[in-house]
Design brief:
MetI-like fold, globular, 342 residues, two-stranded antiparallel sheet, mainly alpha, single chain, 15 helices
Length: 342
């Protein structure tokens, strides 16, 4: 089977998997205990009996399951997620607007931390493999296991205590300075930017992002370090590495251009999964730092039985993971010719 057949087969698998995920996401919420109208049924929130009937009609709970399933599939495929659900009422805010308002914050947090984790983990993993059994290798393996084992909420609280409360270097919460609510930085326009306002905006957001990004980076980098180390140890024993060293190539060239290139297949899959889960946010870290991202939004939606929001974000997370896996499969098929004919 050539590359074209390989891509066609993976495309069919991806489409089938997508419909399986959509179906599973639908029935999970069907069999879950409770209902999105539970808050309205509570006398504390029910001001008018017609509110409950209106909610049942809006959510389509008065229709048969098969009709709701068809409507749900159509809405998911067209990204029509409906309205968000608040405590005691159905809000007038579209779920898609809620996602859009928090997406940038999540991309900053998860994107930067994932990038740092990949770069640091791969770099240290390469050098740990080249110094296998030495003090540097033992230190890196131990530290990566320690940071990966600690709960992120505990790391976050310790960082807040040290770097915010005691040292006062960084703010302890939120995505931007609190005084921006009254006096936001003046950015100007696209064609006539106010550079002082742009600088204030960038540094203000960076100061608030440093602590949560550091927490997630330290928590994640160990996985990439250990994976890189394991694949590199296997590659460093191959004949082509011995040949490269016999030719007098620099050790850095041997490690990164020869050994790492051939050991990168598992790394590509791992990085693709990390990218796929970017939209899931970081529920615990975003909650600890009051970071207004998708993770904190998921946490709030669980507390209010906001089924439309939860269905939408779970679908988007699954969709991104499927797309990331598909791209990884294509990349592996191009990098490793043996996969094309597997």
């Amino acid at each position: 089977m050539g590359l074209r057949g390989y891509v066609a087969r993976r495309s069919v698998y991806t489409v089938v998997l997508l419909f399986f995920v959509i179906t599973l996401n639908f029935f999970i919420f069907e069999v879950m205990p409770g209902s999105p109208t539970d808050f309205l049924a509570n006398p504390q929130y029910l001001r008018d009996p017609s509110q409950l009937e209106n909610a049942i009609r809006i959510f389509g709970l008065d229709r048969p399951v098969h009709e709701r399933y068809v409507i749900y599939v159509r809405n998911m495929l067209t990204f029509n997620f409906g309205y968000a659900y608040g405590v005691g009422t159905i809000s007038n805010t579209l779920v898609s607007d809620q996602i859009a308002s928090r997406l940038a914050n999540t991309l900053i947090l998860i994107g930067l931390s994932s990038l740092l984790a990949v770069v640091i983990g791969v770099f240290l993993g390469v050098y740990s493999a080249s110094r296998r059994g030495g003090a540097f290798d033992s230190l890196q393996v131990t530290s990566s296991l320690v940071w990966g084992s600690l709960p992120t909420f505990w790391i976050g609280l310790v960082f807040i205590l040290i770097f915010s409360t005691y040292l006062g270097w960084f703010p302890s919460a939120h995505t931007q300075p609190d005084d921006w609510a009254l006096h936001p930085p003046q950015l100007g326009t696209l064609f006539a930017p106010n550079w002082s306002g742009v600088q204030e905006f960038i540094f203000g957001r960076m100061r608030h992002a440093i602590l949560p990004v550091a927490v997630l980076s330290l928590f994640q980098y160990g996985g990439f370090l250990l994976l890189t180390r394991a694949t590199m140890i296997e590659s460093l024993t191959e004949d082509y590495v011995l040949t490269a060293r016999a030719k007098g190539l620099r050790e850095r060239t041997v490690l990164f251009r020869h050994a790492l290139k051939n050991a990168s297949l598992p790394l590509i899959t791992s990085i693709a999964l990390t990218i796929g889960f970017i939209f899931s946010g970081a529920i615990i870290t975003e909650t600890v730092f009051s970071w207004s991202g998708l993770g904190r939004w998921i946490f709030d939606a669980i507390g209010t039985n906001d089924y439309p929001s939860l269905q939408a974000i779970f679908f988007i997370i699954a969709l991104m993971v499927i797309i990331a896996n598909f791209i990884a499969d294509l990349a592996l098929g191009i990098i490793d010719p043996r996969i094309k004919y597997g």
